[in-house]
TrEMBL record:
It comes from the Eukaryota. It comes from Penicillium nalgiovense. This is Dol-P-Man:Man(5)GlcNAc(2)-PP-Dol alpha-1,3-mannosyltransferase. Transmembrane segments: none annotated. InterPro entries: AhpD-like, PTS1_Protein.
């Protein structure tokens, strides 16, 4: 039997297309921190110190830029990303390359921070770029799955997973499956395969094995509350030296070994802490903060 709409149905649908003033106020309540975070006055000097230490240790620009981008994305501060780009793009010949790298790092942050902060930060970052740079950024997607490449995506995911977690890669997979049978499936194929591993391509930028571990450590350190995962990815960075997968990334052996050492690991985390301290103005991570009353 056909169901007839209630006489008030049309008006109720119209009401559903609008939010009440009180609901809007609740969504935008200051305690909910609904907006991105402005750049603090000292953020460029924080990035400069990270840059200077990297240069003194002969660490490549992509490594310190990836670290700084990942921590800044985690702190949800697109204005600070713009300041970072300004510092990192003083060489006119590298401006497009730097922008491509920063947005590739931002994309990979999805695996650790989730989608919303990456959307907000990358949208604002793109808008902040000079037209001469933005117009040259790649518009060609490189991660679309097809019947022809789906097996290769899976293979890449397994290879990266094994590289980071061996000799515990199977044990970890099974432990995650105990929590939910699709948890390791999603992590392995949608994150390690489709996102964190790099597809073969001739456009855009790649953040390889070393950079991906730097991104992971930086995001997780900036979040707070996920110490076990920080430890896993610190070891993951070191595994890149053990299995030789560092070779195809941006660093030479001396720099890669320093980044994987206690001193290098400490520098990464102290640098992240400095970014968090500056952007939060001493309040700490805003990723999962203690909340006041709404």
């Amino acid at each position: 039997m056909a169901r007839h709409p209630h006489p008030g149905h049309k008006s109720s649908l119209s009401d559903m297309s609008r939010l009440s003033t009180s609901l809007k106020a609740l969504i935008n309540a200051p305690a909910a921190r609904p907006s991105t975070v402005p750049a603090p006055a000292n953020i460029t000097s924080v990035y400069q110190k990270i840059q200077e230490t990297a240069q003194s240790k002969k660490i490549s620009q992509p490594s310190w830029v990836a670290l700084s981008t990942a921590a800044t994305m985690t702190m949800n501060s697109p204005e600070s990303l713009a300041a970072l780009y300004e510092l990192a793009s003083t060489n006119p010949d590298k401006q497009v390359e730097t922008a491509e790298l920063m947005r590739e790092v931002g994309l990979k942050c999805i695996s650790f921070n989730g989608i919303p902060r990456t959307i907000n930060c990358l949208n604002a970052f793109r808008a902040s770029l000079p037209d001469s740079v933005g117009s040259q950024l790649s518009r060609t997607p490189t991660r679309a799955p097809t019947p022809e490449n789906i097996s290769a995506i899976s293979d890449r995911g397994h290879a990266l997973w094994d590289s980071i977690y061996r000799p515990f890669e199977k044990k970890l997979y099974n432990k995650l499956a105990d929590s939910h049978p699709d948890l390791p499936v999603h992590i392995l194929h949608s994150n390690y395969g489709a996102l964190l591993s790099d597809p073969e391509r001739s456009t855009g930028a790649s953040a390889g094995r070393i950079l991906t571990s730097i991104i992971a450590v930086s995001c997780l350190r900036a979040q707070s509350g996920v110490g076990p995962q920080v430890i896993s990815h610190v070891f993951g960075l070191r595994k890149a030296l053990e299995d030789g997968s560092w070779v195809n990334d941006v660093e030479g052996e001396e720099a890669a070994r320093w980044l994987a050492s206690d001193e290098g690991n400490t520098w990464i985390m102290n640098s992240v802490d400095a970014i968090v301290e500056a952007i939060s103005q001493g309040a700490g991570s805003n990723f999962a903060p203690a909340r006041g009353k709404l």
